Amino acid sequence: MDILVSVIQYILDMGASVFVPILMLIIGLVARMKFKDAFSSALIFGVAFAGMNLVVNFLLENVSPAAKGFAENTGINLTAVDGGWTTGASLTWAWKYAFIAFPIAIGINALMLVLKWTKVLNVDMWNVWGKAFTACMVTFISGNIYLGFAVCAIQTVVELKVGDLWAREIQELTGIPGVTLPHHMTLIACVLYPIDKLMDLIPFFNRKMDVNTLKQKIGIFAENHVMGFLVGTALGLVAKYDISDALVLGVNAAAALTLFPQVSKLFMQALSPISDAISEMMKKKFSGREIYIGLDWPILAGSNEIWVLAIILVPFELLFAAILPGNQMLPFAGLINLSIIVAAYLLARGNMIRMIVYGIITIPAFLYIGTWFAPWITKLAQETGAVNVEPGTMLGWATIENGEFRWAFASAAQGNWWGIIAAVVWLALFIIFYKGRSKENAKRYAEATE
Q: Any coiled-coil ranges, and where (predicted)?
């Protein structure tokens, strides 16, 4: 068993930019691609992953000091340090039972495919850590490892179902066929869905307002590089940078927003041949059965709307952190809130007005849920020894992915009546969202093909 755990850990330590392309190479070969073509596609996929990580880290390295400066200038004194998703992943893999999430994820996916309960073949094994993190938190909070992995199994099922839901929309938004996003960060869409339906009744929110529409209305000010420069410079001035440093931040933010779409084109270049090969194989072997390949969120990272929203939300995150009573989280490593921007983009189908509303109204929930989990994340850090936590402080995650699900089911696992109600409500919202959005998509794409 120790050898198996060591092998799994060794593979995971290579990171997603190596690990996922290896899986893509295997899938390409299984789909009868020529080795040179499968290898080329897999390698380009790895290059795309590495490139996206470089640009995300570049943006974060420039924005985070401005956030810290803002906090210092406003005298905010918050005790929970935001370690972001990278710290969450590191702590999870240091938990001795984390590897159990692999057979659970693979087994459930295989069973649901055989029973035709899903069309998703999820190859995003890197993000199994998110399921393991859920199991870990529920185990720590409830004291029951069986409940921990039961919730992990529930998360696996709903991830696959939401992957079924997003596939056509991702093809529409990105032009990449045959792929989807069975990622737990998008599950917050089910909580926002009732608000989305209310917005349908208000004409203002039904205007077409993606980045391309903005370009028609405000011209150069809607260009990626210009928006990045303006928002980045404004953030620097709010952080009381001098003029030159604020301008440098503006140029760096402009560079990041310009590079994102360029790097994202590599994902399409890598995935199209593999997707075509899989489609051909499925037609021959399974009478044309449709299968979606489940991948990580960077397949959407070329969408300008995602990054515009990410930067717009930064000052709001810092403002709410400063004024919300009872909040202990200061956004830092998780300042670029991937936990909402991707789900908001998919739910709103790229409508910037709706995306901004979703982003702003969810910030308090992220901060309070992050504060609630901070003692447990700190306990995990102390027990595993993976991260040193200074006395008098806590380690947390200000923009915790799938936080509402984890909070509800962890509270239910504790035996709290309000936690049980919250878990039931979450499941009800997911069912409403899944059925409602499925009907919308059926009508939407039927009309598109007529």
A: none
